[in-house]
Amino acid sequence: MSKGPQYAWYERVREALQLKGLAERSVQSYLREVRKLADHYPGRDPEAVTEEEVRAYVLHRRNVDKLSRASLRILYAGLNHYFRDVLRREWHLLGLIKAPKESKLPVVLTVEEVYKLIGGVRTPQNRTFLWTVYSCGLRLQEALHLQIRDIDSQRMMIHVHRGKGAKDRYVPLPLSTLLLLRKHWATHRNPAWLFPALGRGGQDGATADKPAHHTSVQCALLGALKDSAIRKKVGVHTLRHSYATHLLEAGVHIRAVQAYLGHSLIDTTMVYLHLTRNGQADAVDKINKLMGGF
Known about the structure:
This protein is mainly alpha-helical. The protein has two domains: 5-96, DNA polymerase, domain 1, CATH 1.10.150; 111-282, Intergrase catalytic core (hpI Integrase, Chain A), CATH 1.10.443. Helices cover 53% and strands 3% of the residues. A three-stranded antiparallel sheet has the order 1-2-3. The longest helix has 18 residues, at 69-86. The radius of gyration is 22 Å and the shape is globular. The chain starts with 9 loop residues before the first helix and ends with a helix.
């Protein structure tokens, strides 16, 4: 984004959000919401916007623009971070603009569907990338920013730097994934990135100074999904949901799954208990035995 004099506030806000320890993707999302507010009142510094003007803006985005619940959550979080945490405004409005969390269970794939879907990805880098996301339970940005130094082949762990909430963690590295990563790295030999930006001709991997763009892997996954018989609503994050569910089905303790996913609260991880087929089948079997009849 071009930041002229009318955006003199931009860098101040960005630095304040970074100091809070927010992930860069969250920083950019919240900055975008403040910029949209500034654009709604052209010629005004967002610091000069009043509480009533923010109220009118929020109602406009909700009732006129018809933002989805997910988009409203990002809008509310961005405004709250800006006015409450950066400008330290004690507005009653900030306590009101909270989007209710959706209680929908995430979509998960079976193990067979994961293999079929990733196997249908045409480009080797994207195929390796998506397998790494699934087999290590990573978020999209976490996987994109993996570096050579993050792979600990002695302990068979991956060091995930600055995950959501700026938290580091270690996740188990399956042997099959390590071998696949080594084979993939040999195709580009970038000194830093595991998944470098390859460029238009696919020949820039060795000298790339940044990772691949998220749209390339997202498009690769959607292409494979279209070619498959899978009719579920699937995105890259679906692989992370599937990882958690499959670990629980395999008998991995929920506290371990919580640590691997980087969840602060066990309640967040417990959502996946509702998706495990083994637990449901076991419960049905026990109920049938218990309620065996007279």
